[in-house]
Amino acid sequence: MEDLQLNVALLRKRVPNLTTAAKNVGLRPATVSNLCTGKIPIGRAEVRTLVTLANLAGCTLDELILRGGRLSMIETGIKVLDLFAPLVRGGTMGIIARPGMGQLVMLGELFRRVKQRSYVTILWLPKELVPGIEDCVNEAEHTCSSIDELASLVMDLRAQHDVFIGADRSTVLSGELAALRERIQMPGVMPVTIALVDCAGESVDEDAPYGPLDTLWKFDMDLSTRHFFPAVNPIASTSIILEGAQLEANHLAVQGRARKLMRRYRELRPLVMAKGIESLTGEDKMMYERGERLEAYFTQPFYIAEPYTGKAGVSVSLQETIENVQGIMDGVADHYDIKELTYIGKLSK
Questions:
Q1: Cys-Cys with 132: which of 98, 104, 283, 345 at CB 3.0–4.6 Å?
Q2: 8 Å CB contact between 38 and 8
Q3: Cα separation values, 128 from 124, 168, 236, Å
């Protein structure tokens, strides 16, 4: 039988006092609790029980039951991430960047955004505080200095909440991250998603700086020096969720087409910088200009940067991003000036 899981996050979000609500509609609280923790497999649950839970949550059975073998993404509302390298729920993500390219700003922004999705956020403090870590400290709901403190907190929280941890690469090198994973292993509880940054900025010189990753975001020096933020390379960044058709067909199609366009645009850019746009003709000129607009569209104001930039943070849904990117590639934004596409949210109608 296909591996099935209850969408506990959805249940707890829509039915805060779940056991009491279940009892009021004739379900045994112990049964509901065991379904949520995995002690009772979904395949052994009565259909009446599942239908009742779906009615309580105001959702369909398809929304209530997660089908195994299919990874799920955490939609961040950050255009370039959600399209090219989705963050895997319950996975490990690593950022490759040098200091000053915005990786700590990204971590702080992620803390704020996943909190809005009812994740509990924890910052595993590095041994030495570094410039820029203050934003992460301010955005995290909890901070921990030791593995003992962190493991205890995670075990307490994940019975009812998805947990999102931000940590420095030093925890990988010391073996503490592997030790943490062993200590928090527990079936039938909410996932723990881990985001790794490299405060020392040495990851760019390593082949596999974090070991196996589910999501990799590689920052780009050229984008950073041109102040195109987030400075995430759309070609070099990736996610295992892209493998094996884990995404919706339209997402995969648009993502693949956009990646191809951005690769060609980047190949042509040195030539244009040296000889001007007039050196291109025909399809190359069109691909360059649309790639340039797409690159500008992927810039985005962050909420935590509002005090410094004066621009209000924006979030763009995945569906809007897919529609906008497809439109730009099809030429609907050909009349836009590049500056009109820089640091916007979604395209205006």
A1: 104
A2: no
A3: 12, 10, 30
CA neighbor of 84 nearest in space, from 224, 208, 212, 242: 242
The continuous run of DSSP H or E covering 331 comes out as: none
Does the pTM exceed 0.85? no
Burial class (CB in 10 A: 0-12, 13-18, 19+), 285: middle
Question: What CATH number corresponds to the domain at position 300?
Answer: 1.10.1140.10
pLDDT digits (tens, 9 = 90+) for 43-86: 778 888 998 998 998 888 877 876 554 578 999 999 999 999 99
Look at residues 213, 236, 263 and tell me which one is the last residue of a structural domain: 213
By C-alpha distance, which of 29, 62, 27 is closest to 46?
Answer: 27
- Whether residue 22 contacts residue 56, with contact meaning beta carbons closer than 8 Å, is answered with yes
Distances (CA, A) of 54 to 7, 61, 276, 343: 10, 6, 60, 40
Peptide bond between residue 270 and the one before it cis (omega within 30 degrees of 0): no
Would you call 83 helix, strand, or coil by DSSP?
helix
Residue 183 included in any domain: yes
Query: CA distances (Å), 265 to each of 259, 268, 283, 288, 314, in order?
Result: 10, 5, 11, 5, 26
